[in-house]
Amino acid sequence: MSFTVSIQTQDFDVSLELAALRAGDARVGAVCSFLGTVRERNDGSSVASMELEHYPGMTEKSIEAMIDAAHQRFDILGARVIHRVGLLQPLDQIVLVAVTSAHRGTSFQACEFLMDYLKTQAPFWKKEQTPEGARWVDARESDDAALEKWGVGSSNMPLLD
Fold first, then answer.
1. Interior CA angle at 98 toward 97 and 99, to 5°?
2. Which of 20, 25, 46, 118 has the most CB atoms lying inside 10 A of its own CB?
3. Residues of the chain below pLDDT 50
4. Which residues have a Cβ under 8 Å from the Cβ of 146 and sit 6 or more positions away?
5. What counts of helices (H) and strands (E) characterise the chain?
6. pLDDT of residue 32
7. How far is CA 51 from the centre of its chain?
8. Alpha carbon 1 to chain centroid distance?
């Protein structure tokens, strides 16, 4: 099984990442992935750039705990999460969540679960540059609701050692 997390400034090649995730594992019958990109508009304003910050070490541990939770909940064979940090522009790739399993339903569910978890609980801080000035981006209520549908909330998140 392959469960990996990368926090990086450099871009990534989705095809190479998916090929590496499923390489050599004949049990894999499904690969599901989500690719997030920087939008040019958010909350009614144009976005010139987005800067992402994190706590090195803590962020990786948090995402690894998310993957462990997904592995316990779903019968996944592998998972790969890449999240970029630093200064990004509209159209840039921000995040890749990819999951392998024997069957598509499991892959779809686990990928959605991980993305919902990542969107609300991972320790990232996002600042957008807009014509009105810089602003910090918070999780939306819809993101919190998406996580709640899994029976997971801030009060019962995995604890980090």
1. 130
2. 118
3. 155-161
4. 116, 119, 120
5. 4, 10
6. 98
7. 16
8. 19
Q: Identify the pLDDT of residue 5.
A: 97
> Residue 29: what residue type?
G
The predicted pLDDT at position 140 comes to 65
Tokens read off for 32:
């599901």
Task: In whole angstroms, give the CA distance from residue 89 to residue 50.
Answer: 6
Distance separating the N- and C-terminal Cα atoms of the chain: 23
Long-range contacts of 12-18 (CB under 8 A, 24+ apart): 12/82, 12/84, 12/93, 12/96, 14/93, 14/96, 17/80, 17/82, 17/96, 17/98, 18/98
d(CA 62, CA 114): 12
SS3 23: coil
The token pair at 116 is: 């919902």
| Residue type at position 139 | A
Beta carbons of 66 and 118 less than 8 angstroms apart:
yes
Helix (H) or strand (E) holding 95, with range, is: strand 93-101
Provide CB contacts within 8 A for 53, sequence distance 6+.
85, 124, 125, 126, 127
Local structure of 92: helix, strand or coil: coil
